[in-house]
Amino acid sequence: MPDKKRLQVFLRDCGLGSRREVEKFIAQGKVMVNGEVAQIGMSVDPDVDSIKYKGRRLAANPKVHFLLHKPLGFVCTTSDPYGRPKAIDLIRPPVKGLFTVGRLDINTSGLVIVTNDGEFSQALIHPSSGHTKEYVVVSKDRLPSNAAKRLARGVKMERGPPAKARVLSTKARGTRYEITLEVDEGRHHLVRDLMTVINVQVEKLRRTRVGPFELGGLGQGQFVRIPRAEVDKIISEYKG
To answer: In the chain, where are the structural domains located?
Structure first.
C-alpha cells in the first residue's frame, strides 16, 4: 500500500511554516489535493497525489513504480489512435509520464511493470541484467514429447532470429493444458510464435513474472507499489 502522511506534516516538511500555520492555510482554502480543496486532517501520498499551495505544486513529479495485472483488451502504449483502453490508465490517481516497461499485446493478460522512471526501466529490461520472464499458456493441445528439448536448444522462427525457451511445467486442467515457460528476451509475440513452431495453439496467454517481480494473487486491473528498496536493488545490480 502507498505510504501516506497527514497533509499538515507534509506541508510543514515542505517549509511552508509550523503545523499551526499550515493548518491556517488549509482552512483558508489555499491548498489543493488532486484538484480539490484540501481538508485539515486528510492523509496524502506525496509520491502520487498532486498537492498545490496557491496554485504551485509543492513537489516535482516523483518516480513511481507499480506492478499491474493487465486485463485482456488493454494496450501497453502511452497513446492509441483507435481509442482502445490503455494499461497505464488503470493506475489511480493518475501520474504524469507513466509508461509500461516492455509490452503485452492486447490479447495477453498478466504482469506489467508501470513506471515513469527511465533508469529503472533500462535496468530491468537490458539483456545484460539477465532478467527472465515467465508465461503460462493455456491450450487444448498437449505439449509434444520432444518440444521441451527443441525449445531449450532453440528453434527457427518465421519472424526474426532463432529463439529459446525453458518449459518449467505442464499441467492438465480438465480438457485443457497449462504450459509454463521461461524466456530470456522480450521480443514481440515471442511466446505465441514459439507455440506456433511446436504446433501448440494458444487459447490464453498470461505473464506471471518479470525478473524478480511476480504476479502472485494480484487481481485483474489491480496494482501495487514496488518498494523503493527493490527498485534500488535492480538499479544497483545493473550499474554493477
So the answer is: 5-57, 65-127+214-239, 132-210
Let me know if 193 is a catalytic residue. Answer: no
What are the angstrom distances between the C-alpha of 95 and each of 90, 92, 166, 180, 204? 11, 8, 37, 33, 31
Tell me the C-alpha distance between 192 and 187, whole Å. 11
- pTM reported for the whole predicted model: 0.75
Beta strand spans in 81-162 (E): 99-100, 109-115, 133-139
Please give the CATH topology (third level) of the domain spanning 132-210: Alpha-Beta Plaits (3.30.70)
Phi-psi bin for 113: left (phi > 0), alpha (psi -120 to 50), beta? beta
pLDDT in tens, 187-221: 889 999 999 999 999 999 999 999 999 999 999 99
What letter represents residue 6's amino acid?
R
Query: Which CATH code, of 1.10.443.10, 3.40.50.280, 3.10.290.10, 3.90.850.10, is assigned to 5-57?
Result: 3.10.290.10
Q: Which of 3, 80, 89, 105 is catalytic?
A: 105
